Amino acid sequence: MTDPSGAWTGPVPDVDPISAPYWAAAAEGRLLVQECPACGHRQHYPRAVCTLCAATPEWLETSGRGTVYTFTIVRQYNMPPFATMVPYVVAMIELPEGPRVLGHVTDCDPAEVRIGAEVQMYAVHADDGIGIPMWRLAA
User: 85-89: long-range contacts at Cβ-Cβ below 8 A with a sequence spacing of 24 or more?
Assistant: First the structure.
């Protein structure tokens, strides 16, 4: 959801105290997930408690790499700002750190995306202190 200059044209996330570190790290080009200090469970998206044991999770910086677990190519979407993006790829990315994250795979022909393809995270600046994690096929 960027225009030809690379500027973000999509919706800006509603940042709350729980998710703020995630969006701020993305603005710096880093991808965070949560890890529970009590049971070791790793999770994404940001939540106030561990989904396994209800302890307070901490932040873990990932490698920013992953593999495409599954994906879809969106070919029709008539609502702004998505209408100008079609076709685009929405993929579930499996991180080596454990969790799966949802994101756009960009900068390639959608027909090039395959299950198992290696991808690298990058971020698009959406607003002050807010980055949107995006993905590119790894070289």
Answer: 85/1, 89/113
Phi and psi, residue 22, nearest 5°: -65, -50
The per-residue b/e assignment along 89-109, b for 16 or more CB within 10 angstroms, e otherwise, is bebbbbbebebebebbbbeee
Q: Which amino acid, one-letter code, is at 113?
A: V
Distance CA 56, CA 18 (A): 11
Strands 100-106 and 130-137: parallel
Q: Does the pLDDT of residue 29 top 60, yes or no?
A: yes
- 68-116 pLDDT, tens digit per residue, is 999 999 999 888 877 888 999 999 999 999 999 999 999 999 999 999 9
User: Does the N-terminal peptide bond of residue 87 adopt cis geometry, omega within 30 degrees of 0?
Assistant: yes
Contacts of 83 (CB under 8 A, 6+ apart): 77
Contact 123, 104 (CB under 8 A): no
> Is the four-CA dihedral 13, 17, 22, 24 of positive or negative sign?
positive
Could you give the count of Cα atoms lying within 13 Å of 77 in the half-sphere of its Cβ? Answer: 16
- Report the DSSP beta bridge partners of residue 137: 119
